[in-house]
Each structure stands twice: as C-alpha cells, then as structure tokens.
Specification:
48% of the residues lie in helices and 15% in strands. It has helices at 3-10, 29-41, 61-72, 77-90, 102-108, 110-117, 134-144, 160-169, 190-201, 217-223, 235-243, 250-265; strands spanning 17-23, 46-50, 95-100, 123-126, 149-154, 174-177, 208-211, 230-233. It has an eight-stranded parallel β-barrel with strand order 1-2-3-4-5-6-7-8, surrounded by nine helices. Helix 10 links the parallel strand 7 (208-211) and strand 8. The two termini are 28 Å apart.
Length: 267
C-alpha cells in the first residue's frame, strides 16, 4: 500500500476521508491545476484525477461532457500525467489517484505509464479492467515496482466469491459503488450502502470508500454513518465547473464547495 495513502487512512481513523473527483485539465490545464490545489487546501484528502477518453462507458452525462471538453482541446493522458506531477510538486501530502480506462494506458504503454507516474501518483483506477484480463495483470505488476496501488471497484451486483478474489488483490483502498449503473444519476441509499460496506469488510482489512450517488453535504453526512473509510464526490463538482466555466474565481468557488463537504464530515 502506498505510504501516503496508508497515512491518510490511519490519521483520525473514525472520520471518513473526503475524496474528490475532477476530470483533469477541465476546463483548462491551468484552471484545473488551481482547482485541484484549492480542493486539497479545503479538506480533500485524496484527489481522483480523471484522464479523458472518448469511450467513458461508466460515466453519466455530466462527467462525459467534461471528457469531451478536454478532448476538444486535444489533451490526453500525457498532459494529465503532467498535471498530477505539477500538483505533487506543490503538495507532498495529498493522495493522488489517476482514474480512467485501460485502453488509454495500453496505448500509452503500460510499463512507460507506471514509470512516468512514479513519485507523483499514489494509485491508479481503471474502471473497465477486471482482474482476469492480461492488461490488468500487467498493469498491477508494473505499478507494484513503484509502490503504486491499483484500486479495484466492487458494485452491488458483485458476488461474494468475486469480492473475495478482488479483496485479495486490492491495495490502497477498495471503491464500493453505491448504485448500479453510470455515475452522477441515482441517489445512494444509506441502508444499502451500510450493508455493502459491511459485506466487503468481511473479506478484507483494506479501507473501503463509498462513491456514486452522493450529491450534497447532507448526503455525505448520511453516508458517513455507513462504516466507510472515505466518501467520493465527483459529479457535483464537475457539474459546477460546467455551469461556471467562465468564472474567473472558479477554483476558489469550487474550493468553497469542497469545504462544505469537508466540514460536515469532520463534525
């Protein structure tokens, strides 16, 4: 497990950590970097940075549009890696996770990808890479050389047998999906989330974070009672960026919303 992620989850263990998702380089490289800095400054313990793809099959319309905005600028994985490196150079404590799809990493070259993100990124999450495929196994092997975690997803439809298999391979944290389907559409139900977290924890001591369907601070406050080690917020921030894309104070305003989530998790 990444030493940085381990420290994050060990500190103040009874409080779920705030994990924020932003599509990297949205709306621009420079603004995105400032948004990420503001998110960290205002209480985000871990920053998930999405790298763009034209085939964002797990994303709802809000995040899909952010991918399209970045692709329209001809920005891809290399620039997103640079974004993570620039963020790391300004902050040595925040957790950084690159999140996206396996095809982009494969086309970049898996060994080169692992080498290029080493020292800056703590973990990688490929949403469409089950552990049985060769590319996932290669990615896990290459990341391990640099002490980078490969985050795995578990959904409400995942069988106990498969949860057990995933738990044995997991490091960093496990991402528990609260709802079936794409991101940013449905709302999470706290009783179902609690049941899911308990189920996963019966197989592992790896931290379990909860994501999808958490739209506002009150939702986060409820999900914080589920027993999860972290709460992931994404579509709310990405939607705000789209609606305020030309605001010169956009990074600071995003930071203010991040603080609203952070404050309620630390009550």
């Amino acid at each position: 497990m990444s030493k940085r992620l381990d420290k994050i989850f060990q500190d103040n263990k009874d409080k779920p950590k705030l994990i924020t998702f932003f599509t990297g380089c949205d709306p621009t490289y420079e603004t995105s970097l400032e948004i990420l800095k503001e998110a960290s400054k205002n209480g985000a313990s871990i920053l998930e940075i999405g790298y763009p793809t034209s085939e964002a099959s797990a994303e709802g319309p809000v995040i899909k549009k952010s991918h399209d905005r970045v692709i329209a600028q001809k920005i891809g994985l290399p620039k997103t890696i640079q974004l993570a490196k620039d963020l790391r150079s300004s902050n040595n404590e925040v957790g950084i996770v690159l999140m996206g799809y396996i095809s982009n990493v494969f086309m970049y070259s898996i060994p080169k990808f692992a080498k290029d993100i080493a020292g800056a990124v703590d973990a990688v999450l490929c949403v469409d890479a089950p552990h049985e495929i060769h590319e996932e196994k290669e990615l896990r092997t290459e990341l391990k050389k640099y002490d980078i975690d490969l985050i795995k997803l578990i959904s409400p439809l995942t069988s106990d047998k498969r949860i057990s298999e995933i738990a044995k391979l997991s490091s960093g944290f496990i991402y528990s999906l609260n709802v079936k389907g794409i991101s940013g559409v449905k709302k999470a139900d706290v009783s179902e989330v609690s049941s899911m977290i308990k189920r996963i924890k019966s197989f592992t001591k790896t931290p379990v974070v909860s994501g999808f369907g958490i739209k506002n601070p009150e939702d986060a406050k409820l999900i914080a009672k589920s027993g999860c080690s972290g709460i992931v917020i994404g579509s709310t921030f990405v939607d705000f960026i789209e609606k305020n894309i030309n605001d010169s104070k956009l990074p600071q305003k995003v930071g203010k919303i991040v603080k609203e989530f952070s404050d309620i998790l630390n009550i």
